[in-house]
Amino acid sequence: MADADDYRSDALVVFGVTGDLASKKIFPALHSMARRGRLDFPIIGVARSGWSLDQLTRRVRESIEEYGGGVDGAAFDALARALRYVGGDYRDPATFQALCKVLGGARHPVHYLAIPPSLFGEVARLLLGSGCVRGARVILEKPFGRDLASARELNRTLHAILPESSIFRIDHYLGKEAVQNLVYFRFANLFLEPIWNRHYVESVQITMAEKFGVTGRGKFYEEAGAIRDVIQNHMLQVVGYIAMEPPSTTYHEALRDEQVKVFRNIRPLAAQGTVRGQFRGYRKEQGVKPDSQVETYGAVRLYVDSWRWEGVPFYIRAGKCMPVTATEVVVTLKRPPLRKLAVGANNRMRFRLGPEMAIGFAARVKRPGEGLQGEPVELMLADRALGDEMEAYERLLGDAMRGDPILFAREDAVEAAWRVVDPILGDATPVHEYEPGTWGPSEAENLTAEAGGWHNPR
Question: Is 234 a catalytic residue?
């Protein structure tokens, strides 16, 4: 089999084509690719539902109208012409035989498994048995496994079928413009490097707040929870970008290599540095157990035991039913030695990753009048909406079709990240109830007491 970089894929197969992920993310991304003239391959939808191609086409139009910003007539026509449909059970070999017939002469298909993770292994084995995996790539949605042991087992199953270069573990956070800008800003501006270390940085905070709840996904959330859903992947990826060493530009895997080094240097999380919460009313959601102990909020304190970051606390929190929807990174610097001139908040770098992008530097300037009294100001280096940039799923789908793995999670990165969170999974810590519209359980305030508390996004 050729290496992944040696060929471009010539067909896209979407397992779970009638599901929410396809409707909310995949179809709008494909529509955008068609609008840019980049949709030159057939799209074969596979689902257990007894749908027809006409029904699928209507679903695609509805999803683009609702989630894709409106239908472009020419782009939709191109997308509709590319659509095919295979109905059948994911556990039935006949489904995969039918898929092979529809693929026809496609030599390098991409199989997108937009299905529950519990089905990944079985679908992969049936793809192998049918011959549909020959020359192919596979895209898998997160969470990749439920813990370290299951992630390793899934990796073993996949590697019996495909080489690592043909396995694309998608984390849409890595495709976001603002997250990529975090990496670019760090290494394209020399003024940061002298202070980006334990000598000058006091703490790092990362907040991923969502104003909404589980929005009808109670059954899924019962299997995941905030730690598995976003901390093990999205949030640790951001930690990797903040804490990594400058990647070499001389070889393709340099960026992912540096991320893995960070994950390996993070101490496994401990119960005493973890707070789990659940918003009041979660247990009334459809699909949620009446005595559920699943967290809708997670906060952790972690340390990166590297030369650059030894002793610097990283605080991460993610939660549902927060006061706002926003994701921010705040890097707080230590106080200058002349404390009389620096009364008040420390200097901070603030990276807003969503819903809009912003980069600001909080400094202190002299207040007008007599005496050396200061006041805080924030210098905005960037502040813009994220409306015109390429959407994350479009970027990642295009990369997977070309065989570019840089923005996808590698096997060793996934296992290293699970090693970090493994000790706090399940009921390792109690769940504290919090009111919707607040910043989570009061117990989480103790985590950041030494850092002056949490910085709440506005």
Answer: yes
